């Protein structure tokens, strides 16, 4: 498997790691025109979004705990 193929697979896996979202299947040919840096940038963006959503979930849980006590 090439590096680009692995990066595309990583993007697909990140997209599929969101709960409650239908599984995504990416046709590698759709992303094949992108260079390695662009694919890495997409992965970085997805990881940042995932981290932000976890932080907002934690903030909501903390607020819920305070109101529930």
Description:
The protein has 69 residues and is mainly alpha-helical. It has one domain (3-68). The chain contains three helices and no strands. The longest helix is centred in the C-terminal third of the chain and has 33 residues, at 36-68. The radius of gyration is 16 Å and the shape is elongated.
Total DSSP E strands? 0
Amino-to-carboxy terminus distance: 53 Å
What percent strand?
A: under 5%
Low-confidence runs: none
Radius of gyration: 16 Å
Structural class given helices, strands, pairing?
A: mainly alpha
> Can you summarize the main beta sheet?
none
Write down the oligomeric state.
single chain
Task: Describe the global form.
Answer: elongated
Mean pLDDT: 80
Helix/strand layout:
Layout (H helix, E strand, L loop, with lengths): L2 H13 L12 H4 L4 H33 L1
Helix pairs in contact: 1-3
Give keywords.
elongated, single chain, mainly alpha
In short:
By secondary structure, the chain is an all-alpha fold. 72% of the residues lie in helices and 0% in strands.
